[in-house]
Amino acid sequence: MTNSAFNTPPQTPPNFDATPEELISNTRAIIDKTRSLQDAIIASVPLKKATLANVLLPLAHDENASLCKRKISKFYSSTSTSAELREASNASEALFTAFDSETLMRKDLFELVHAVFERRVNLDNESQFYLEYKHREFARNGMGIIESEKQKRFAQIKVELHEKLIASRKSINSSSGIWLGESELDGVPDNIRKGLKKGEGEKAGKLWLPFKKPHYDAALKYAKNPTTRKKIYVGNDNRCPDNVPRVKEIVLLRDETARLLGYENHAEYQLEVKMAGSTGFVNDFLSGFREKLTMIARKELEALKALKAQNLEETALQSGVGTDTFFTWDYNFYSNISKAQNHSFDEKKFSEYFTLEKSLAGMMTTFSRLFGLQFVEIKPDENSTFGNEHVMTWHDSVSVFTLWEGSEDSDACNQGEFVGYLYLDLFPRDHKFNHAGHYLLQPGYFSEDGEYHYPSSALVMNLPTPQPGKPTLLSHDSTRSLFHELGHAIHNLVSRTQFAIFHGTATTRDFVEIPSIMLENWWWTPSVIKELGCHYSYISEEMLKAWEDSEGRENERPAEKLDDQSIQNLVATRRSNEALATLKQCHFAIFDMAIHSPSSREEVEGMNLSQMWNQTMSDITLMSGLEVEGEGWEWGHGCARIGAYIRGYDAGYYAYPLGKAYAQDLFKSMFEVDPMSKEVGMRYRRVVLEKGGSRNGMELLEDFLGRKPNAAARYEELGLAGGQLNPSRC
Ligand SMILES: [Zn+2]
């Protein structure tokens, strides 16, 4: 970014030229090649002579190369504008998944792996970890099932489950929204309202509010009319009706799988291979955490209720029942008002200092300094470097960067080693993944001849779409989210593992968020905010004009840098209603553990998930839904729209609160004193990030910290030093 020189990378970037037909034929060819390799190894290696070198390594080299193709093939389903390509992408992944099952059900192959496992000698750490991982993978995928009927059923479930997960993801990603009148959107910022589609015919005079993150969040936060917020919240909770029975079916299939494998339930199966290790550990953490948070949350809620009563009296708007009831759709709105009242934090003012372009540049500079990296954008006119036929991206709005070793202040870039490719797909469009996420497009690994294959990683966000002549301003939430996701991408890029399956963020799910949650702390550090912020009117003449058009020439132009008081006001908001917000997270995690750890099959069969979702929400978050208006407990089906439960965070949502606890431990212990310390940054890069998933996450944290991680830093920042309520927070 800071260096305009474009160095030719030693490896061509991925080519996004796939057609639906090719995607399928390539998938079949990859699978056929792997199957032939398996057959050849089984035919040529006797059990007595099986070693890592003649069984696992040839398979690993094949796996490394095929993973590069598979990840991109799968990626199209979340990002392509072509319905055919998205369909082909899903079909390709279904073929791969079916082949995974086939492979893991091969007794002859398992016997060879088992023979290597039994006589493992003198292996390097990563190879040893790989061998154990592969051996366990067979067991966890049915190799331990003796009876043939059960084996058959297990194989059936795998396919069925995969199909349901794809259908579920499709339902969650599909476009949905609500028509609202102009007046109903009173309070919602212009930048959101002006981008809304206008209705025609019988919808004339109405605006279409899509249930996409920026629109949904802004509407719940700013819409003054409580009925509007209720409509939006309830509409969103009911936007995936086809998923309501499907999620239950998924939970049942997971439960059946776990029982076939000899586990008590799905949660026990999931936790066996996680950093947390057991359901007991997770449930203890969640219940203890919830209990302590509730003490603070009750006080926060009292204050929000008072604010609501005052607001309703002033505006004479009625919310349905008595003002003593605090609805879940009231939270963002009143929390925002309370932030503004109690902390004088002006979000609009903050966002004027953080345009997308400048924020991104600042973030890249931060990563450059911390981890000794250099970002260089590949401009569209440089694409021909890779040949005229080469399709650089999957959409015109995507930008591409190369990463190189070498810090910003040195001239090492030209001599620096190539690190990988970074793709930024930042703006919403139809059928695109509708939250903020990162995707490893191609993992890094060492090929058979010892050459390193460089990784490619993509950020997929839904930030406000830039408008000509206007600045694209980011809220503080958006900047943190962007930095968080960029953190995942950097993890993917700086990782260096021998095997592709361990590359970068291919860690356990309860570890993977820790590095990025830790990075969010930078956006609460005054010196960082001061340095990275710049009022948009100072960026260019065009932006100055945009400011004058928006605010009027006669007004005093804001200072170039954000003032210290505003930064202090922002930092003060960090703990604002944090207990209530964290209880919402606990609701997701506790519900997740409850549905995935039934004590019997009958228990899961008898579960009414929507009812459980709403009841646990009311119990845990202390906020109400439509049940208090006589609508019963099935007024909404929130659990049917939660992507995390079908994207691998099943019996795994606890990773967010636990990850935050450990992330805060890392930050406070190692980075807080000097968040820009290159020395600490580089050590963290080498000890933690570089290892990816090639070692147990707990061990990596212990290596970096010099002790086991704990939740003390998290309790302390919440005002719960030593687990007790700190009087200063009362
Ligand atoms: Zn994340």
From TrEMBL:
<dbReference type="GO" id="GO:0006508">
    <property type="term" value="P:proteolysis"/>
</dbReference>
<keyword id="KW-0482">Metalloprotease</keyword>
<comment type="similarity">
    <text>Belongs to the peptidase M3 family.</text>
</comment>
<dbReference type="InterPro" id="IPR024080">
    <property type="entry name" value="Neurolysin/TOP_N"/>
</dbReference>
<keyword id="KW-0479">Metal-binding</keyword>
<dbReference type="InterPro" id="IPR001567">
    <property type="entry name" value="Pept_M3A_M3B_dom"/>
</dbReference>
<dbReference type="GO" id="GO:0005758">
    <property type="term" value="C:mitochondrial intermembrane space"/>
</dbReference>
<protein>
    <submittedName>
        <fullName>Zincin</fullName>
    </submittedName>
</protein>
<dbReference type="GO" id="GO:0004222">
    <property type="term" value="F:metalloendopeptidase activity"/>
</dbReference>
<dbReference type="Pfam" id="PF01432">
    <property type="entry name" value="Peptidase_M3"/>
</dbReference>
<keyword id="KW-0862">Zinc</keyword>
<dbReference type="GO" id="GO:0006518">
    <property type="term" value="P:peptide metabolic process"/>
</dbReference>
<dbReference type="GO" id="GO:0046872">
    <property type="term" value="F:metal ion binding"/>
</dbReference>
<keyword id="KW-0645">Protease</keyword>
<dbReference type="InterPro" id="IPR024079">
    <property type="entry name" value="MetalloPept_cat_dom_sf"/>
</dbReference>
<feature type="domain" description="Peptidase M3A/M3B catalytic">
    <location>
        <begin position="220"/>
        <end position="719"/>
    </location>
</feature>
<dbReference type="InterPro" id="IPR024077">
    <property type="entry name" value="Neurolysin/TOP_dom2"/>
</dbReference>
<keyword id="KW-0378">Hydrolase</keyword>
<dbReference type="InterPro" id="IPR045090">
    <property type="entry name" value="Pept_M3A_M3B"/>
</dbReference>
